[in-house]
Amino acid sequence: MTxxxxxxxxxVAVLGVAVIALxxxxxxPRPAPHQAPLPTDWALTARPVFNTDERRVYxxxxxxxxxxxxxxxxxxxxxxxxxxxxxxxxxxxxxxxNHVAFAVCSANGRVLAAIDLDTERGSSRRIAQIKQxxxxxxxxxxxxxxxxxxxxxxxxxxxxxxxxxxxxxxxAAPAPSHSLHEARDSLSSTVANRRxxxxxxxxxxxxxxxxxxAPDNRLDGMGASDFGPLSGMNGDRADSELPSDDIGGVVxxxxxTPNPTRH
Length: 263
Fold this sequence. Notes:
By secondary structure, the protein is an alpha+beta fold.
C-alpha cells in the first residue's frame, strides 16, 4: 500500500514546490521600466495652433461672444469627471485622447458650448458618438459645422442663450447709482450745516464778546457807574483818548496775542 502511494506523494510534493516557486517569481520586485534617454538634438519647430479654417471660426466666436472665454483644443477630461471615483481609469482611457476644437466658457471657467469642424479627414463615428454623449451628460451645447458653411454671428450667439444680451455688444459704463447721489447730497448738507454751526458758535462765543473783536460796551456806561474814574485820570483825559467816530473795535480774521509789556 505504501509503495502504491509513493508516486502520488512525490507528485504532490513536486506540484507544491512548483506552486511555491511560481508565487515567489510572481511576487518578486520588478525593476523599473527602462526609460529611453533624452535626445541630445531636439529636432522640433513651432507651428500655429490654428489652421486657416480654425482661425476663421475663432474670429467669429470672438466677435459674436466678446464677453466669453474661448479655449481651443480643450480635452474632454478637462471639463467632466466620473461620478464614481473608482472608474477614473476607465473613463480616462476612453476620453483621454478626445478634445473639442473650441469651447465657450464663462468667466468662472464653466464650459457653456463646444464647436467642432466637420472635415473629411475628421474623427470617426465612434469618436463623434463619444463627444456627443459626453457633452449631453454635462449639459453642454454642441455645434458641428463644415468649414464651407460656418454659422453666422446670430447662430453663434444662440449657443449661449443666457448670455446673449450681454454678448451682443460691449456695455457702456454704468451710471452713478442712487446711493451715490444720496451720499453726495448728504455730504454737501453736512458741510453746510457745520459751517453754519461754526459761524453761530463763533458769534455767540464768550471769546468773541470778551476780546478785542467787539466794541467794549463797558465804556458806554462809565459815566453812569457808581464808581468814579481811577485816581490820576480825569474825565476830560478819558474822553480825549476815545476815538471821535465811536468805533469801538475792528474785527480781524485771526486774533494775535499781545506781547507782554516788560516793566
